[in-house]
Amino acid sequence: IPIDIIPTGEQYSQRVGEVIVLKNITSFKELDVAKTNFIATVSHELRTPIASIQMSTEVLKHPRTGTLTEEQQQLLLGIEEDSIRLLKITSELLNVSQVETGNIKLFSQFVDPLPIVNYAINATRMEAEQKHIQIHSDIAVELPRIFVDEEKTAWVLTNFITNAIRYSPINSEIWIRVKQEGRYLQFSVQDHGKGIDSSYKNRVFDRYFQVPGSGRTGTGLGLSISKDFIENQGGKIGVESELGVGSKFFFSIPIENKTIDLYTT
Ligand code: ADP
């Protein structure tokens, strides 16, 4: 055991030895992987029954099923809202398990940006209708194709719209815009909702962070997963917001020269 003298200000103390603790963490790592796999499987399995609950509510709402009393309509609305929440949580859990293990698998290809927007609008239609929110889109013509994982990029846009709906008042408007900004293609979702206090703006992309007072309905995971998905694709993500006025969440994807390579080789 080495013994040496370590100066600490005017005093001198003696180091009389060193203790090295070695711990085999293989079992912890295995447990962690098992836990992650379990979360992924459960969240995946939950999606089918939730989808069938949503289909049943659609059938019950149909005029052919008969007229519902006011109370029955309210109950049905509650089931619909909860099933939307459950679906969001399961899809976040499914994705966070990938992100946590640093195991984001990207299946990137050259895609047209328009289907990404259409997918996100369709996926959020039911939630928007429930709050009588109009979703408008303003998409520049002749947009370049981008090299992205289409599913993950659509997931991020869907998450932005879901949040915009959640944090906006009824009868309000949401605008989805896609435009070229230099060497980037920018997707943005603007709402006229509650907005975010400037002191919290940078924190909304942190894992599990929720602005105090935003209700305990969410998980605080959606935006942090979105950040991982976009940054892993070489993109940028951000928000502009004013409390009481609204928010604009955006992400930009680089328009790569790979497009040219693909067609010339
Ligand atoms: P969740 O919505 O599940 O809580 P997110 O990661 O998607 O988690 O969002 C984190 C927090 O950011 C939310 O809890 C909310 O406080 C705030 N936030 C997100 N989107 C908006 C928005 N469009 N308007 C106002 N606040 C928002």
Automatic annotation (TrEMBL):
It is found in: Membrane. The keyword Chloroplast does not apply. One of its GO terms (molecular function) is ATP binding. The keyword Zinc-finger does not apply. Its main location: membrane. Residues 41-257 form the Histidine kinase domain. Keywords: ATP-binding, Kinase, Membrane, Nucleotide-binding, Phosphoprotein, Transferase, Transmembrane, Transmembrane helix, Two-component regulatory system. This is histidine kinase. It comes from Sphingobacterium kyonggiense.
